[in-house]
Structure prediction request, 556 residues.
Amino acid sequence: MTRLRFTDILYPAVFGLGVLILWQLIVKGFGVPAVLLPAPSDIWTKLNASLPILWVDFVQTVIRAVIPGWFIGSLAGFLAALLCDRIPFLKRGLLPLGNLVAALPIVGVAPILVMWFGFDWPSKAAMVVVMTFFPMLVNAVAGLQASGHLERDLMRSYGASWWQTLVKLRLPAAMPFIFNALKINSTLAMIGAIVAEFFGTPIVGMGFRISTEVGRLGLDMVWAEIAVAAITGSAFYGLLVFLERRVTFWHPSYRK
Amino acid sequence: MSAAPAIAARPVARETGNAVPVTVVCLCILLAWYLAAIPMNWVITGPKIEAAGGGLSNILSFSWNDARPVIPAPHQIAQELWKSVFTVAPWSVKSLLYHGWITLSSTLLGFVLGSLLGIALAIAIVHVKFLAKSLMPWIIASQTIPILAIAPMVIVVLGSIGFTGLVPKSLISMYLCFFPVTIGMVKGLTSPETTQLDLMRTYHASTSQVLWKLRFPASVPFLFTSLKVAVAIALTGAIVGELPTGAIAGIGARLLQGSYYGQTVQIWAALFMGSFLAAALVWLVSVAERFTLRRMGEKP
Prediction:
């Protein structure tokens, strides 16, 4: 992946625009009822008309639950990985469990967390913490092992301490893995927060809005929420990709 | 979403001799669980313990045996699992096997459909240059949308045009699991070296011959790694897909009912059932992987 070329943006843009136009034409041309699939133009109108509601939902779900939960979960996973790195016994015990948990349907914990932390945003943030912990743990442990023996031996010949080796060699080498986990977690966090809202929430939030509007067959509002979620998710992801390029510019996949 | 990086992060070879550390960590978790149950259940059990006259034996028996605890003790969950799996007929609505089967069937259908779609997309992307440029970014973008959030709408919309039961849930599973398969297969199908591709060209092999005799065999290890990720998220998709159907049947419905009626033990039992299913499915795929790779001549 070298510098972005014009066609790298042009092709997907043309494709996406084509899909939107096709969608609009099919919905309007065949008279598909709005309860099945609203046209993009209707969704856009609804989106503009209900910006205040969307903003309140955005604050409740993203600002209060997703971002703090994502941060705490990733940080906790990273610290656990550091602990595993210092205590090999813990690593051998915890890592297989972490791999197992990564395959489990963790969203099922949502009703329990809602019961423990109440209906408001803390239960959603807790859900996000639970979902983001293990991917970070597994990836960060793998990342901390990524530096080669030669480099580590060199650090030892310099008389570097564990901390110096960590900060100057192993953390930079682990960065691609850590960013992988952060990117995985950015999508998991959105899913976790929204699904947790299906199990009980105050009358605000993206998951709440989606489930109630589906019940009222207000599908244009549902799609507006989805659009907001999609834009948020993509922006979050894109920001992480940008940061990753800045931090791991040395990685072979970014070299020319 | 989680797929592509998770594939990279998953260790290929399992270290031997992890049994002891894993057991120790599990025992520590169990111990912590039992200990945590005492303060966490205090809200409910506290008055009862006071009434019974306090004392350690009362504290322990009340904290670990309440009917609707904040956190049930592990043996309560085991009892509930035993009760709802072995003591009731498998086709009754009280049986977890029944609910597990409902979830499993839509998971499997979605998994098969999603994997086929994923493989087809990967083959198209590898062979058509325009698709590689235009489709790939959208496939990645499609997974930055929290698709599980759309699940209720998909279910309701499909329900209103006559699709109910198995199909809508499997469509959600399918949407979730085509992605890791596509990513893994694109990587796998493009994994043959230039020299190998050149050799095929000197044989004057057609595109389909190159696909079947070189690219596809080369992609099998990637395929299985992706399938393990895919089957796990297919199950998650099926469970979430059951949430908005009005809690009729399935693991997800069981979770929702439990949360409506405050049946904590039931929630935990359903959660463990789901986890067993996930572990079993991933295990089955790894068995198939080992078998296939051995037949293809991989040295153990």
